[in-house]
Fold this protein.
Amino acid sequence: MNIIVHIVDWFLNHSLGQLIILFWPFFFFDLPRFVLLDILCVPIFLFQRWKDRYRVRDAKLALFREQPLVTVIAPGKNEGEHLPALVESIKQQTYKNIEIILVDDGSDDDTLQILRALRRQGLIDNYFRNERRGGKAAAANLSLRFSKGKFVVHLDADTHLREDAIENVIFPFYMQDGVGAVGGDVRVKNIDYNLLTRLQALEYLKTITVGRIVSSVLRILRIISGAFGAFRRDVLLRLKGWDVGPGLDGDIVLRIRKLRFKVLHEPTAIAYTSVPTTVKRLIKQRYRWSRSLVRFRLRRHRDMLSPFNKNFELFNALTVLDNIFFNFILDFKWIVYLFQLVFFFRMSLFTISVVNYFLYMSLNILEYFMARIALDDTFNRSEKYLWLFLPLMPFYTGVFLRSVRTFSYLMELLFKASFYDKWNPWKVSRTIRDEN
Amino acid sequence: MEYFLIEEKKLSVKLPLPYKRIDKKEIKDGSRVPEAFVVFGNTDDFFEEVCRNIRHLGSSKVYLKPVIFFAERKLSPRVSAMADEVFSSSELDEDTIKFELKKISRINDAIRKINPIEDEKEDDLFLRVLRFIFTRDRRVEPVRDRTSFFGITYPAIESFFSKEDYALFSTLEFLEENGSIEGEFFEKVHLCNKCHCSFLNFMEVCPNCGSASLFEESLVHHFPCAYIGPESDFMKDGQLVCPKCSKKLKGLGVDYDKPAVIHKCNHCGFFTQEPDVKTVCFNCERESSPEDLIAQTIKIYTLTSTGKNFAIYGFESPLLKALSEQLNILPYNSFLTLVQLELERSKRYGVESSAIAFQIKNLNDIYAKLGKKTDNLLKEIGSLINMATRKSDILSILNKGTILFLLPHTPLKGAEVVKNRLVIEVDKLIKENVGINPITESSISEIPKKEAKEPEELVDELLKNLKQIEYKEE
């Protein structure tokens, strides 16, 4: 009770201007980028969906009338145990003209036997195997080389699709011209495993379900998850497939955008994927993801920012800029902010931290309920109870994930750590290093 | 002590043995039994034919007799192994032959140990083969032979079977199953599942269209740009150039590798890394997948002490063995005693009882076809009998395939129903599971109420009246 009285007192003793300066990261950056844009864009998205309801219906009709072949690919190493369930979920799709091509990237478990069995049972159309691991990009490219579909859907092997997922990820190609790729919504399959998976489920709802609706409305969508995304095959063939990762999912989207194709997010196309269940594995995953931002946005695709580039396009530039500014540069703001608090407001450090906690918690609450408003009918029981864990989110995203991200950026900036990543086979990393 | 000489062409040298010249057509059972058969010739076919004729004779006193080949030229290992002794015609000196003929005496001694009923025609193929193995007292060894239908054969016993007869293997399996011989693994041969021929063509075929026209090439993975595709994608003016980044490939292991091979179907264009395998039989042209072929285990067999016993005294009836597990089968003598009692009861109290005889005549054909699986069939027959009869009915087995039933308190009409039901069901079972036409015979007899009859008389009457039932045309 005393604490509350103390905080209220503290507030009354500061003017609004002082408060804004004290909480500048929130008021100047996170509030406008995440809260205001969410409040603006989610209703725009819902309004557009309502307005386009007949166009959606017509696009689906056109899809089912044409019945194009859709190739589903799922490259991976030692993923055999997930494949029967994946194939089962593809077989239960409302859209049926599907070719399934699976690639075993040098597995040393019984994946090959499982693939053989699936092929023998006629459940998959074809499979390929690299006797020696070539990496995720090479495995995806191998599938692409032998695919025949008009569209290629890339899945992770541990993904589980909602029964209308393929239909919903393909129809946007029939709704607008010039769509090169469509990303699906990715939710967490193993929500109820532990606290960590619940927090990741909230994070996915925030960054993918809501975040990508907003990016898509603003036309600055920069990533399609490898777990679930659809591409026009002719576009992929023009690009000759994926380039070496990590971060190949974001990279391919920027390369598609460079060809002036639209990249959309379709929140009704829903896939469920397994997320890391231990802190160690989660750190490893995020360490890999974050390094790709530096490698691809800062290094490889910085040409998209130059107005003197003959292929310059404003929204492409904004896409990269948004990513670099909000995810990279502003990531370091908390170091500055921490210094500011420690050196100038040491006496009020506790109070300011508590207020910051509530501010960021309310931001998380808002984003969770935005997701509920937009897509409540697609929420399962576990997802509906996730709000109980919202109070933990500021610690999870603001402290834990931010620390991992900052460390990762620094490692990539200083040591080009991604070029030594075991995620790629050594032979590939070595060649890439030599070339860079 | 006389030898029978069968010639392909006239023997030009003097045979240092007492012999009688006979034509190959004169090889038959008879009262005159030779010490051994001597075959002189120069073609494999002649030796094989004569040997086969001898081994197909009925009397064990004759078909088991030693066979000696005198050959003008070297015979194939398979044909040589059919004979008990092989001499080249240049070895015809008396001392050598007399020394080698000790083996012939040993075989004849063994034949004398066998206890067949005098002059009885021995038609049990299993017993014939077993007795042959016993009298030769040697291992039955397989020989790989490209002229054999099965690619591998047992020349020593091959003459007991007609050519291309799979019964060669099933007979040995049966003998192993009943403990007469024991086998030691030699190898496995794959046989056509239709005709049992081993001359098979194994082909890699497209899993999509089944065509064998496949083109194989390596997959190439270019590390820097992650492009991966067939080597032909990279070929440009005789050099490997990446189709994605247009860079010339430096060296295998440096900037690219070949992680796998891929097959392209020239017929339908399908790509696969693991073509299906199909086999085509050169004899009957049956196409099948390797897993559908018969994987015949070939063993080297040796006689067991049980086998020796069976060879001398004959087999325990396999029918009796199989049926005893489910039914209460009485020894024949006990059965006769109970028939005697029933005859007395009928006479004294006027009880209406009946008896049935039921015989599967071609049980040997079934063994030859099914081998060790015959036991399962016999057990099925046991179940059918169990269902068709009552607990109070009395059963016995007379010989190999004849089952006798005594049905107390069952009038002739009721017994007729039981008999017909049994015959129809058994016939159907054999036809469906073995794929051959069963030859089952049955008869029925009433236990007489007035006239005096001996139990043996009743059984004789049943056996005399055995006949096949007539199926009504559908």
